[in-house]
Amino acid sequence: MKINRLQGIVLSAVCLFAVQTWAQASAQLPVPDLALRGARVYANPQAAPIDNAVVLIHDGHIAAVSSASALTVPSGVRVLDCSGKIIVAGFWNSHVHFETGWDDAAHAPVAQLEGHLQQMLTRWGFTTVWDLGSVPENTLALRSRIESGEIPGPQILMAGDIFPLHGHPVYLPASLQLPEAATPDQAREMAERYLHIPLDGIKLFTGAFMGDAPVINMPEPIAAAAVDVAHAQHKPVFAHPQNYAGVDNALAAGVDILAHTIPTENGFTPAELARMKQQHSALIPTLTLWTTVVHNPAVSAHLVDSGVSELKSWAAAGGTVLFGTDVGFQSVYDTTQEYQFMGRALGWREILASLTTAPSDYFHQPQKGRIEPGSVADLVVLDGDPATDVANLARVHTAIRGGRVIYEETPAR
């Protein structure tokens, strides 16, 4: 991503039109009424289940949810038979990337983009996602086409990346020109440009992995300058740490969310956990990632074990956990393993919260994350109960966003 390219985006009438379309188009399209009948419903992660339930959807929102014996489906409403299934609120994936396969998203065929979205996201129940780094032109165009109703897909929130000086991670192509901030003023300017596009947040590489060379950490004053800009506009800031220094600088700067654990270290320190609790920080574990970045199974297992331990200590200290997989950078689309890894540290209700109520509340979208009258009708229909096996969260039969089906399992022939 080139800085002059970023400036061009800010001035581009095409991108401005895309943003306007994204903001307006959904309201222009009528949403047919829908009823889901016969499932067990978990209205929120703490709620007791409602068996043989009916969920009524009107104008893209939940109109009612109750047992079938207490709620009659109005005539003329399309009914989805969900007998034997489970219904929960729509899932958030708070760490994705629209990197590979999204080129020229403004003009790519609908079927191509819809298929890719299904493989990567909607097939796994994701109705809202945070893109933590991609080419903005492509992702803005994709977002616009989704919001216009042309392509079924999730709500896409976007963060712009800022790297430390000379902090070009070894896993990114050397030819890629990254936005590196050498001073607080540069970080401030970059953050302002991103939010002017407008993107929805900022991501700081407070630690850049340099292979055999030492990690390059972003100095706290540089991180703080970007944080100040984002927080002045009530936008969140994510941090990509690599070690203790990256975590400490991020927390000192006031960063909101750590986008990864730091499994090469020996767990978060007591001081980090205390500061995290004080600042109401959040953590995205991305545990499956550690199985993809190294080829030695023993090393991968150690990294996962360390990440699980850090997740457990974070949750025990009262930290907010947000589900995320780094998918798009890594190519394991299936979320089963991530749920199983998280299940070694958290209960199924906590994992469900990381997918629903926790991000909805943390990112100030309280109309999502719960199945209750007035809420946005973002729903996931599952083929199995997560109360009996957390891996059932990956057994998605249907995903619904704003009352519209954006993924439906094809019956086996």
Automatic annotation (TrEMBL):
What is the residue range of the signal peptide feature?
1-23
Q: Check the record and name the InterPro entries matching this protein.
A: Amidohydro-rel (IPR006680), Metal-dep_hydrolase_composite (IPR011059), Metal_Hydrolase (IPR032466), Metallo-dep_Hydrolase (IPR051781)
Q: Which residues form the Amidohydrolase-related domain?
A: 86-405
Q: Which UniProt keywords apply?
A: Signal, Transferase
GO terms (molecular function) for this protein are: hydrolase activity, acting on carbon-nitrogen (but not peptide) bonds; transferase activity
- One Pfam family it belongs to: Amidohydro_1
Q: Which domain of life is it from?
A: Bacteria
* The protein's name in its UniProt record: 4-alpha-glucanotransferase
